[in-house]
Design goal:
Layout (H helix, E strand, L loop, with lengths): L1 H23 L1 H21 L12 E3 L11 E6 L4 E7 L11 E7 L2 E8 L2 E4 L8 E7 L2 E6 L3 E6 L9 E5 L6 E8 L2 E6 L11 E5 L4 E3 L13 E6 L6 E5 L4 E4 L5 E2 L2 E3 L10 E7 L2 E6 L4 E6 L4 E7 L4 E6 L4 E6 L4 E5 L5 E3 L7 E7 L3 E7 L9 E7 L1
Parallel strand pairs: 1-23, 19-23
Antiparallel strand pairs: 2-30, 3-4, 4-5, 5-6, 7-8, 8-9, 9-10, 11-12, 12-13, 13-14, 15-16, 16-17, 17-18, 20-21, 21-22, 22-23, 24-25, 25-26, 26-27, 28-29, 29-30
Length: about 400
């Protein structure tokens, strides 16, 4: 998310370079391209994370285990449509007429929605607009959110929908990075401007079945928290949690939204690196993040604990299966499995060096999605697949 927002700030400069590069000559042209590529590649690994003194943070080691469960392969790749930012699917045939899996992403100026049917990923006809960042659904109501406050809903025909996408005013013009549908009449989205050029406050907005309304959050206990990246909750208890910049975690566990404390799973202080995504099973949640090294945080129903993971690059996405086993993915094609409640895991081979941004699965299969997010646009995209 940091990289996507940062690209907005360098976009004008990049266009200017493209205008004069032919006048300078082929040598300068190649030099400029290489400088830009190096800068863009470094951003997701060390932007705000460089402020953390990781030498003083105790890390838990994770090594590659050749006997891991998933066997990843490339199911789809996209050379023109763009990167893939999120994946999610329906699992209840009583609520959905078709148990499809959806993915969203695109290029900065054009979002794309894909649907998986009979093992093939098909481009879905949807309203035009900028990049789409996340997808989630509940009881036949599918939601996607994206840049510039984009929020769209698709109602399955099994729930009376007409098969068309409907756009909504999400009560913000800031980029929305995550959405969570607690029910058709309670949907939450988070976002913000992590580069510091717009609204200084992180965004939390709620849909009540009719309209979206921005929700005010208490000021965080640290500076520079301009964005929340993902939100997730427990449908049974109604508890909600949102993670974001500087390792901040907000939650509503029954008494309203407030910032939650996080303690270290080791003897070292907790990391202050960004937390990017979270998922859970019941009242147990797993959050991941980090820029230079992966960060793992877990909620046991009472408190949050975290640790930096040695040998694991920054993590972007996580999904938890019904057995309580979390799969996390991240930079340089990283993938690992961790048992909920544990800080020890197994690395997996994905056979890709692309940035993996999100993962989701059902009882039989799992997908991981991403693309060339560590390069300047236009991006390419990839969808990985494995059976359990």
């Amino acid at each position: 998310m940091i990289l996507l927002a940062k690209l907005k700030r360098v976009n004008m400069t990049h266009r200017y370079l493209l205008q004069w590069r032919s006048r300078i000559g082929r040598f300068i042209n190649i030099y400029v391209q290489r400088v830009l590529l190096v800068c863009m590649t470094c951003l997701p690994l060390c932007y705000w994370g460089c402020e953390i003194d990781t030498d003083n943070v105790e890390r838990l080691d994770m090594t590659l285990d050749e006997g891991t469960e998933h066997s990843w392969s490339i199911e789809a790749s996209f050379s023109e449509e763009g990167t893939v930012m999120s994946v999610w699917g329906a699992t209840d045939s009583e609520e959905w007429s078709d148990l499809s899996v959806w993915a969203v992403g695109g290029q900065p100026e054009q979002g794309v929605i894909w649907s998986r049917t009979d093992g093939e990923w098909i481009n879905v006809n949807a309203p035009m607009g900028p990049l789409l960042n996340w997808v989630h659904g509940s009881r036949g109501h599918l939601w996607v959110v994206g840049n510039e406050g984009r929020a769209m809903r698709y109602i399955d025909p099994a729930q009376g929908g007409d098969g068309e996408w409907e756009s909504f005013n999400a009560d913000t013009e800031q980029d929305l990075w995550g959405v969570f549908a607690q029910s058709p009449t309670e949907v939450w989205a988070v976002g913000g401007d992590p580069t510091g050029t717009g609204d200084i406050d992180p965004v939390l907005t709620r849909f009540d079945g009719n309209v979206w309304t921005r929700v005010e959050l208490p000021s965080p206990d640290r500076s520079g928290v301009r964005a929340l990246f993902k939100i997730y909750g427990d449908p049974l208890t109604g508890s909600l949690f949102a993670v974001g910049m500087k390792g901040v975690i907000y939650g509503d566990v029954g008494s309203g939204w407030g910032q939650l404390n996080i303690t270290s799973a080791t003897d070292a202080p907790p990391s202050g690196e960004d937390l990017i995504s979270l998922w859970g099973k019941g009242d147990q949640l797993v959050a991941v993040g980090g820029r230079s090294n992966g960060v793992l945080a877990q909620w046991d129903g009472q408190e949050w604990r975290s640790s930096v993971l040695s040998g694991v690059p920054g993590l972007n996405g996580v999904w938890v299966d019904e057995r309580g086993r979390a799969t996390a993915v991240g930079v340089r094609g990283a993938a690992l499995q961790v048992l909920v409640g544990s800080f020890e895991g197994e690395r997996e081979r994905t056979n890709t060096s692309l940035v993996l941004h999100a993962t989701w699965g059902n009882e039989d299969e799992i997908w991981a999605v991403g693309g060339s997010l560590d390069n300047t646009p236009p991006w390419t995209g990839v969808i990985l697949h494995s059976s359990h």
